[in-house]
Design brief:
6 helices; Rossmann fold; binds flavin mononucleotide; 6-stranded parallel sheet; about 15% strand; alpha/beta
């Protein structure tokens, strides 16, 4: 069974994006082993302290390298991707001390997100050139952006309508299809 690693762009415990990742995991059930990357201890990148990699970075590198595909699920902060997520990608973009390349390079992936009325459009827009620069391979499905309603913000519980559910299912199908092709 292939492995899919979820990278949630919010570290908030009750994160809507963490909840959206659970919907995505559900859509992949029976077709992939799904796990969620724990990257909360990854420090702010400092090239002076790059090697040896901090333990949290080394384990994130291994988890990404071992995954057949990644699914980034992220909010939008100030009309761009969250700074902490960019920091994580900067760490992962680097070669290891032994010279082995970035585990992101050429990785199959897709992305989704939950946020305000903008449906995380600008988060996707700032992520895209970064991911393309890393030669990541996008599954052939539209990225799903979900708007969190006022009621959901109050209850801290994400609910998906039928359109969002089927968009996530379509992404899951496309991701698995691409992994199976390889
Ligand atoms: C620093 C910050 C900036 C934000 N900027 C935006 C934004 O530009 N667009 C938007 O739709 N939501 C924005 N939001 C609201 C987030 O979409 C909302 O807090 C969302 O719940 C965060 O995702 P999470 O629940 O996974 O933590 C911002 C939130 C924070 C904390």
């Amino acid at each position: 069974m292939p492995t899919v690693l979820m990278i949630v762009g919010s570290l908030r415990k009750q994160s809507f994006n963490r909840q959206l990742a659970q919907f995505a995991a559900h859509a992949l059930a029976g077709r992939a082993n799904v796990s969620v990357l724990d990257w909360r201890d990854v420090p702010v990148f400092n090239q002076d302290e790059e090697f040896p990699n901090p333990e949290s970075v080394a384990s994130a590198r291994t988890a990404v390298a071992d995954a057949d595909a990644l699914w980034i699920v992220t909010p939008e902060y100030n009309h761009g991707m969250p700074g902490p997520l960019k920091n994580l990608l900067d760490w992962l973009s680097r070669p290891a001390e032994d010279g082995s390349p970035s585990p992101l390079f050429g990785k199959t992936m897709t992305m989704s997100g939950a946020g305000g009325a903008n449906c995380v459009r600008d988060s996707f827009a700032t992520l895209l050139p970064v991911l393309e620069f890393m030669k990541m391979r996008f599954a052939p499905a539209t990225f799903t952006g979900v708007a969190v309603s006022r009621e959901m913000f109050i209850s801290d519980t994400l609910e998906l309508d039928d359109a969002a559910k089927s968009a996530i299912e379509h992404q899951a199908d496309a991701l698995i299809g691409m992994v199976d092709e390889r």
